[in-house]
User: What shape does this take?
Amino acid sequence: MEENTQEKRPDLMVGKKILYVHGFGSSGATGSAKGLRILLPKATVIAPDLPVRPTEAMELLHRVCEAEKPDMIIGSSMGGMYTEMLYGFDRLLVNPAFQIADTMAEHNMMGRVKFSNPRQDGATDFLVNKALQQEFREVSSHCFKGVNDQERSRVFALYGIHDDLVHTFDLFCEHYPQAIRFDGGHFLNDHVLVRSVLPVVQWVDDHQEGRERPILYISLADTLRKGNEPMPTAVKAFQQLSAVYDTYILASATYNEPEAWAEQVRWVEQWLGVPAYNRLILSNHKNLSYGDYLIDAHNAYGTDGFMGTHIKYGEDPYKTWEDVMEFFERLGGQ
Assistant: This one.
């Protein structure tokens, strides 16, 4: 990952520890851990090499958690399966492989497997046999055993809509409410780290710090989108604003348009991604929404009675999203 200062979040997880739990056949030298270190330069990212045997891997992770007391744990694939069982911490699971023993069989992962990243012990490959597969099956059978109301609020899961290896979305939803789909596949890359992982890290950090950001509402119709297409540069603007403000989307629908709500949810998920998770509000009375700013192309549905600052998109001096972003840049997050 290039060290793009616009992608860094130096204000997040300052002085905190993140434990990164890598996936099957990888190591702590994975590019995902390196990417997190670039994006979160004031955090400490701990990424140990995991033993191949799952019982030994869990023992190591418990020791690391006890010694380091991480502020957040992020686990990918196999690492997501392990991470679910590290109760008592804020956790993010990315494409968690809760049924990894079955995945091994379905995708011909048996036999000699090469590590995808260098390991500190110098090992370059390992053997996957029936005994190891059975050990994975036994360890993964303990997932969800420690779920309670407190744990449900501390765990997020990200699922790539193009993932062709792991399909545990429904299983996760049986135990936890915060399952989020993202535009990506099974493996993490720079784009997924920036657009999907970092927003969740921000939510966790804000909650831990008791941080309250100014509230920003953006209307969907003719502001974020026109017809079925996003307005020019609206998606990029939404992502940038969501990194600074507590941002919500306001949509309107009449009682004779019940299908409109589901369609709006699908559009927001497709175009705005993880930062918009659980932030779409159906409101025909926008004046009842308490907040600091409202970006809206119209005065309808109570917009003219909004108690904060109404930014009239499409009219001078806010004719384009570039004009809107210039206004917010001058505010500096206020």
The two ends are 30 Å apart (CA to CA).
